[in-house]
């Protein structure tokens, strides 16, 4: 390391420069932008003088109209709107104001409606209660009405909303469309989406774009949003912090990544750690909570071995309990590459899908790099297949898990822009909740897709046995790399065997090679998990064969021969539906006799 890195005077001069840069951004907005451990960028804030005023609860929780804010993006504010049986329909009025309004992506579940108008769909109270994990609220068989504006984009206005929902007493819960997976959109229950804007003519900073917004405010007024040009960071507003070139402009140009890492290691106190975390997160166009290292250490009993959920090459995961968050999974990264950490935060925060694990916050402090995720109580798919948790999974449960995970990966490939390649799809990265519903985790290696014609290459990364062999041949990434890895997971689901086992014959060490050989010869039953055969019948045999054929196609050596994840998801959903239909028919026959 050069002497300039060790020079205290030089170091503190640069530290002063960064602190001035950070404070200037806060002063520019002329309002309080801190709530608890979270800091927001202009135009948001928590006091008079802010462009868009949010609320900060006594517990330090960001709120809008009484609802907890989970994410703020460059266009939307995502709110936590959990089920409440007697929430007045008028409570929604607070989500329609001069600077923000609900978008057409929302679907509301209404109760006690006297109107017989067509609201778009009717879902039974039993289904909604089960899906949202609440009781039936004493409705005694009534239907919960599902309201959607049927718009394809834009905002709702309070006038059209109140007119459409006239005659309904309660707003039970909310859901929002998280984007199309393959042939149908995905609803994220318990959340609402509001879009935001500033009124008037564009007031964007130099090196920023202005986007005009047609607002739903009466009188047909227009608004705007600002965003920095590529290669610049900041909020983009002339009244805010504006846009600066690169990451922490002058510091990056003078010293580069090496000094940046050294700088983070030197910030040994919690307060300085929080400041650097906020600045790093300003790059991601999203807001996540920040936790102090002291609280994380307390939550994990100082990273005690008894709190370990699992460990891997890049991280160790602990279970802990944080105030205002309950039980959480705390991922302690073993490397100090800040770019990789910010990459994972940015990618996971940009994804909203019921089968993708949710990021709750982070801690970058005193040389520690920690991500906090929602806790999944049933461990990993790998643990269940290897009988390390539970007594084994039924075939129906395995098909459901496979179909849901395929939907999540298809969502990453088709509904997110730019598409995301996960690059580490494996059974130990598939987590299960209380009801064995899966969520895809660990985006540490994930990367946005690059244009195919760019001929961009990358060194293959991932886990032995799951990596596309063509990645080793030509180093070229594509969505078909994830397809191959998912094919290995399907084979695990069928066989419950280890992906790499040197105890097997030399030609069968790799599970993918073993499976493609048996499937290709029509000998699938030779490798089926014996646990599945305990309930072996005609439909189960056919279903296993169908899933094996999907796996065989996914594991094709030439990626052009592999299906897309959207095709895989659609095929697995068809298999799951047929399995369910067969089970219902068999149950009916038993009852009749």
Write a structural description.
The protein is α+β, with helices and mostly antiparallel strands and 593 residues long. It folds into four domains: 70-196, no CATH class; 201-245; 267-374, Phosphorylase Kinase, domain 1 (2-Layer Sandwich), CATH 3.30.200.20; 381-592, Transferase(Phosphotransferase) domain 1 (Transferase(Phosphotransferase), domain 1, Orthogonal Bundle), CATH 1.10.510. The protein contains 15 helices and 30 strands. The chain has a six-stranded antiparallel sheet, with no helix packed on it. It has a six-stranded mixed sheet with strand order 21-25-26-24-23-22, with helices on both faces. Strands 11-12-10-13-14 form a five-stranded antiparallel sheet. β25 (359-365) and β26 (368-374) form a beta hairpin. α10 (395-414) runs antiparallel to α15 and α12 packs antiparallel against α14 (538-554). 40% of the residues are buried. The model is unreliable at 1-29, 179-184, 247-273 and 451-460 (pLDDT under 50).
Offer a few descriptive terms.
Phosphorylase Kinase, domain 1, 593 residues, alpha+beta, 32% helix, six-stranded antiparallel beta sheet, disordered N terminus
Give me a quick take on this structure.
The chain is an alpha+beta fold. It folds into 4 domains: 70-196, no CATH class; 201-245; 267-374, Phosphorylase Kinase, domain 1, CATH 3.30.200.20; 381-592, Transferase(Phosphotransferase) domain 1 (Transferase(Phosphotransferase), domain 1).
